[in-house]
Design brief:
The protein has about 425 residues and is mainly α. Helix content is about 45%, strand content about 5%. The protein is globular. It comes from Amycolatopsis saalfeldensis.
């Protein structure tokens, strides 16, 4: 086992080396040739075991592109990559070297973990002191500018902001969006992945229309979305990750000698957990569903985003949510890793982007939640699944949770990085 683990670690390290640009890491050289926001956070979790200074640089590079309003853009474009290599590229966004959308706020947890891996080097680089105010501004943007529902939860304005781009949870609110003209752009993703595994042309045209509308509003959270066109959804996955990030910020504040600030971050996390339970929890279903803020109706699809509130250690409904996770819809511990969509749904597709396959980052997050709620045996099995899937599929972007077939890009950044992190996790011993 030791020899196998060493070989897997070495192979994962080669992936991260091959994907390194000099100051950041691309998810994959072909399909995703730029720096992505939440990808970099997960990649830093693996890099901290190989080269902590590189992990720190990964995150600092991303936050150097932070906007004045505090948002962290979901893409930082590599100027050395041809403009036609990815769509929508910088010309579409008209925002300099970045996009104008965001992704889930997993960064504070990554920053804290990277600091802990090398506290001496981190202190020498003033890593925490540099990033703490930037992280605070990022969270402040979300809580102050994106609370469209007025109940203390963040809304996403595009499916891409969830990180789970093609989730069935977005189908109903997305259906109100008029598709863009497909003749106005060329999809580059189909050049690198099987078309059957990717979003449909109709879905992609709706994504483009939404992104263009937000761009044309100058990325204003006051003037967009409009009543006619738009997408405003309180996502339990996104909000759970923000609440967890506030808990991580509390730990960072303690390390910086700011006890009052730490208490404020913990209170913020508690408020969000309470609002999520009141707004997004369905007691009969035993699940967290996204809420369409425009209609006030739940998006009643069982997707992996509804499992992420397990990250919150004091979640009162955790036993019921664990029951759903281990039940027929997700069969946690019985299938491989964490299916991204309801196994009992006739629409479940084990190969289609976010409509069934398992992803390494979701598995990593769910495992963290299981450990926080004392589900050590399930967490152990999930760790083995994630490591085996990485080994069997050459670090595939996503995998069939029933057959273990790999899909999407290979040598995928966060799959390799999180394999390294799981191999190094002392809790597994």
């Amino acid at each position: 086992m030791l020899e196998t683990s060493s070989a897997l670690r070495a192979a994962a390290a080669r992936v991260l080396e091959d994907n390194w640009l000099g100051s950041s890491t691309v998810p994959s050289r072909g399909l995703y040739p730029h720096q992505w926001s939440w990808d970099s956070a997960f990649i830093a979790l693996g890099l901290r075991h190989l080269a902590p200074e590189r992990a720190r640089r990964e995150l600092v590079t991303l936050f150097n592109a932070q906007w004045r309003d505090g948002r962290v853009p979901h893409i930082l474009f590599n100027p050395d990559t041809p403009a036609e290599a990815y769509f929508p590229g910088p010309g579409f966004w008209r925002a300099g070297r970045t996009s104008g959308l965001i992704q889930p706020p997993v960064h504070a947890r990554a920053v804290w973990a990277v600091h802990q891996a090398d506290p001496v080097g981190s202190d020498t680089d003033t890593f925490l002191a540099t990033l703490y105010p930037k992280l605070k501004a990022w969270h402040r943007y979300l809580l102050a500018h994106r609370d469209f529902g007025g109940h203390g939860l963040v809304s996403i304005v595009h499916p891409w902001e969830s990180g789970m781009d093609n989730s069935p949870a977005w189908d109903e609110p997305l259906s109100r969006v008029t598709p863009a003209d497909p003749g106005q752009f060329t999809r580059r993703d189909l050049e690198h992945g099987a078309p059957a595994d990717r979003p449909t042309d109709d879905e992609y045209c709706r994504y483009v229309r939404l992104a263009a509308g937000y761009r044309d509003s100058d990325y204003s959270d006051v003037h967009w979305p409009t009543e006619r066109e738009g997408f405003t959804v309180e996502d339990p996955g996104f909000n759970a990750l923000l609440a967890d990030a506030e808990l991580a910020l509390a730990e960072i504040a303690v390390a910086l000698g700011l006890p009052a600030a730490a208490a404020g971050h913990r209170e913020s996390a508690a408020r969000m957990a309470k609002a999520m339970t009141e707004r997004l929890w369905d007691t009969r279903a035993g699940f967290f569903f996204p809420l369409d803020v425009r209609t006030g109706k739940a998006c009643r699809e069982y997707t992996c985003g509804g499992l992420l509130p397990l990250l919150l250690p004091d979640l009162a409904v955790a036993p019921a949510l664990l029951s759903t996770a281990t039940g027929p819809r997700f069969r946690l511990g019985q299938v491989l890793a964490v299916p991204s969509y309801d196994l009992t749904s006739p629409s479940f597709d084990p190969a289609k982007y976010w409509r069934g396959p398992a992803w390494a980052n979701v598995g990593w997050l769910v495992r963290e939640g299981l450990l926080r709620h004392g589900e050590d045996a399930l967490a152990h099995q999930l760790r083995l699944d994630l490591l085996n899937l990485a080994r069997w599929t050459d670090f595939a972007e996503y995998v069939d949770p029933l057959s273990a077939a790999g899909h999407g890009a290979r040598s995928f950044g966060w799959t390799a990085a999180l394999a390294i992190d799981l191999l190094a996790d002392e809790r597994a011993r």
